[in-house]
């Protein structure tokens, strides 16, 4: 349906014959900031990558904006985990951000003056314009994450998928990033974030997708971030959930 930002049906994924995601089903409406949470090894990143067609899936039907995934790729921006990026690749910051304009340029078209101007505007939005000519590998973790967020902004996407964007970054970078993500949400964009810090779930997200290889819960934060569901996902005694940031 067009009013659904994303619809995932019967998503299952296996690695080397071992099932790591089983029959995941969820839908999300437009204009939401959605956290994907669950314990280590729960399949959070796998679910995001499988939903985007970046890894094979055993089964599953994915629709974005009511249309098949393959028809919507130019409207999707994906920011991978920092650990999956080759930071030694010789590229400067402004050229990294400019790559975000390439999906809409088409084959054999090079960025024009206005594309380069737009890339610099996106860099300014994340507070990194003064590093435009720096090598990407010279930056701190938080600065690198800001640059990749700027690259996703340069795509002019409608749907944003970020895999663990707050891991290993400084507090000021995290504040900049969450402010921008909330701003995208307020503009009507839909943002999905694989997230690990449960203490910030209630202040960061509108909706949650809670998994541990299977779907435990999905929907508004106050419907999902509940002791019984968190206990089912994290297998933690209910008296320990307070240390995870869950009210008990």
From TrEMBL:
Gene: mntB
Protein name in UniProt: Manganese transport system ATP-binding protein MntB
Record-stated family: Belongs to the ABC transporter superfamily.
Keywords for this protein: ATP-binding, Nucleotide-binding, Transport
Pfam families: ABC_tran (PF00005)
Lineage top rank: taxon: Bacteria
InterPro entries associated with the record: AAA+_ATPase, ABC_transporter-like_ATP-bd, ABC_transporter-like_CS, Metal_Ion_Import_ABC, P-loop_NTPase
Protein's UniProt keywords contain Signal: no
Source organism: Siminovitchia terrae (Bacillus terrae)
Transmembrane residue ranges: none
An example molecular function term from Gene Ontology annotations: ATP hydrolysis activity
Positions of the ABC transporter domain: 6-238
């Amino acid at each position: 349906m067009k009013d659904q930002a994303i619809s995932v049906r019967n998503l299952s994924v296996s690695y080397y014959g071992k099932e790591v995601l089983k029959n995941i089903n969820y839908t999300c409406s437009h204009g939401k900031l959605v956290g994907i949470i669950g314990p280590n090894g729960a399949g959070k990143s796998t679910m995001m990558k499988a939903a985007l067609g970046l890894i094979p899936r055993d089964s599953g039907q994915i629709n974005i904006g009511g249309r098949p995934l393959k028809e919507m790729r130019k409207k999707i921006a994906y920011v991978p985990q920092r650990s999956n990026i080759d930071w030694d690749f010789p590229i400067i910051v402004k050229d990294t951000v400019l790559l975000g304009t390439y999906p809409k340029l088409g084959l054999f078209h090079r960025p024009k003056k206005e594309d380069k101007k737009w890339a610099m505007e996106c860099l300014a939005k994340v507070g990194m314009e003064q590093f435009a000519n720096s090598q990407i590998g010279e930056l701190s973790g938080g600065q690198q994450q800001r640059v990749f967020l700027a690259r996703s902004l340069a795509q002019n996407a409608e749907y944003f998928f970020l895999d663990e964007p707050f891991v290993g970054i400084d507090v000021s970078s995290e504040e900049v990033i969450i402010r921008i993500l909330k701003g995208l949400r307020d503009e009507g964009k839909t943002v999905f974030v694989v997230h690990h810090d449960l203490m910030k779930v209630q202040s960061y997200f509108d909706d949650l997708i809670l998994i541990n290889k299977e779907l435990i819960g999905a929907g508004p934060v106050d419907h999902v971030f509940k002791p019984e569901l968190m206990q089912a996902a994290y297998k933690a005694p209910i008296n320990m959930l307070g240390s995870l940031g869950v009210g008990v």
